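Notes, p. 3: input format for complexes.
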Amino acid sequence: LASGPVSTPPHTVDGFVKEFLRELNYGQGVPLSRSSLNDQYLALARTVRGYLTARWLQTATRRRQKPHKMVGYLSAEYLLGRQLDNALLATDLTAIADEALKQCGIDLDALRQAEIEPGLGNGGLGRLAACFIDSLATMDAPCVGYGLRYEYGIFKQTFVDGRQVEVPDNWLSMGGPWEIPHPEMEVPVHFGGHTERYVGEDGRERTRWISGWDVLGIRYNYMVPGYQNGVVNTLRLWRARATRAFDLHIFNAGDYAEAVRSQTFAENISKVLYPEDSTPQGKELRLQQQYFFVACSIYDFLKHTQPTDLDVRDLPERIIFQLNDTHPVIGIPELMRLLMDDYDLPFDEAWAITRQCFAYTCHTLLPEALEVWSVSLMERLLPRHMEIIYMINEVFLEEVREAFPGDELRVRRMSIIGDHPERSVRMAHLATVASVKVNGVAELHSQLLRDKVLSDFSEMWPEKFTNVTNGVTPRRFVRQSNPNLSKLITDTIGVGWVANLDRLRELEVYAEDEEFRAKFREVKALNKERITAVLKRRDGIELPQGHLLDVMVKRLHEYKRQTLKLLHMVTLYEGIISGEVDAATVTPRTVVFGAKAAPGYRMAKETIFLINSVAKVINNDPRVEGKLFIAFPANYNVTLAERLIPAADLSEQISLAGKEASGTGNMKFALNGALTIGTDDGANVEIRQLVGDDNFFLFGMDEPAVAELQAKGYQPTAYYESNERLRRAINLIDSGHFTDGNREAVSTVIGDLLYNDRFLVLADYQSYIDAQAKVEAAYADQEAWSRSAILNVARTGFFSSDRSMRDYIDRIWHIKTGS
Ligand code: 26W
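Output follows (819 residues plus 26W):
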């Protein structure tokens, strides 16, 4: 990196025009007069990147002056969303770029639309990582985000006859203007083979790993700009490439087939993001991905990022690797391997160091989402790591026996190696044993981790467990996505809130101000106009106007209970068409769903089909015209979220209590002035505490009630039989009313609801219907509704990811911010 002065392009319209035309002419190689929209977008992105690069180099140079501890955020997913607007905002170039492009006869908005968002994540976990690195840059905290540069991100969802069809997301096909590749810096990563003992020159026995095949990690840097603070951090994603030493392998000819395999398969490693969200498939390629990016990242830190004279014994003063769920946990035995086999440290010393270098965040409560890898796969793919895991387990189980003498049952429960259904490595156990701290992502979640999922561990090491409630970046999810509300807030309390979200509290008094409430409603109305235009252009959907806008957007999963929302809509519809309910008394309501299903998740896909089927009938039935409407735009992603959330009146957060670790969409809605209808789950609990019971629609069983009902044996049919409205809603679906008389087409979902219903949809149905009736009553009083909505904005500044990062820094990382 340059250590001398770096030049920043001039912050003027003229300067910007010059940079832009230079990028267009010499970068894209086209004159303005013949440039395509994509040429212009790429030139603009590169221009803005130029402004970032200067700051990026300055940040790196400054950080190099002084030894410091940094965070290596290890995440298999980063759901970044579009980059252009965020970079313009961070550099305060939006107005300049707008004017500069105008002078070139170009509309900035058209170029914004040209960007394909990097969808390198599935949902909450990946988006959280993106929010965190944004906040760390804004706080000037030394952090490198490490991950995988998937060539194909999360699939593009399309609907064919109401059913989800996945299309590959070739996000780089139009160019990757935000990345800086370094093909000259290759990181070797080994797989397979065997280990052998040998005696070193000093007479000590050592182990070496003779790999079966190797790949190279190619570094791609992305800039992560802080908000108008001149800081730019790094996101470093790895791409796999076949080795050149490949020919040598062939000549050595020991294992020709394996060598050929490496050539063929090496580049598959970073090919595609696994679209499974919370159901690990145990696929070998996924383990290859995990080891690949973590090995590259640790190597990169040791060889390039730390000062060259650092003694590895001081590592804990230089680095803390944050494990974003269990996906990067293989980094633990990897660091052990490096310390023992490359740096010659004995096991005990390596273990003492390693145990100070990792911290683990768990993001789930579903038992099926806890990753395990079979011992046989591990032995084949990473034989040295498997040996090290056994060694770790041995000393760990000794500790357990010492702490709980004679409790062999406990030893078996806690072992890193499990026996059922096959011998496998429990990654959450390995992570917990090796980490300085283990955290959940909301108060309730952390409590349930301590009391249930990892209770043996929290008994042994109570101080190891902590909570850090998730957050979202206010830059992207308020300032950028909701310019109308942002302007109102800034006009009212000044601009400081963008980097200090607690200041939203100052809005609280304005909840009582009639004029402010009117302006607030005007903002909502404008945002509804905007989403109406977006859905029309993007999906051909004609959103009815003047409705309560009720939004449920998140991955499709049974525990999130999209079917409960659907049952509510069918209930309203059935009430009207049966004549039971006078249509004139019904609050006009539009429900927007957005949800991708994992391609192999049958029930989720059937639910998508059912939503689309119900939508088609309701939207075309004149009896409910102007009253009920369901929109299900395909391919819900970050870009659509940014348009949709600011327009919502009602936020649906209706997971079964005890199942949603936190949720982060819930926070985005509240911050944008939607009221929440939600269960006592995840961060909903904290949202409700902050906004107050009067400004939140709570329903459903709480976690202890759920546990109790399940313990005594839950029978969904009992609810079906005893609840007439529920029965009529289910019967209407079951009759084939929404599927052209085809009852078979709905049988999977209906059958599951009646005879399984693992997530207690029917048990919470009546409570949900009652809460929705309260919503309607509340919405009828627009002044009171606005007051509540404003209080939601004013009281949820806590959910800034800046605050989450403060908490990680204070409770876990102990790093310094600023220079
Ligand atoms: C395929 C294996 C697997 C297992 C778990 C893939 C992905 C997961 C994730 C842990 C699922 C996930 O994204 N969890 C979500 O994390 C968010 C950020 O903390 C929370 O807000 C959500 O509640 C949680 O579901």
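Residues 123-125, 128, 276-280, 325, 363-364, 369, 371, 441, 470, 660-664, 682 surround 26W (CB under 6 Å).
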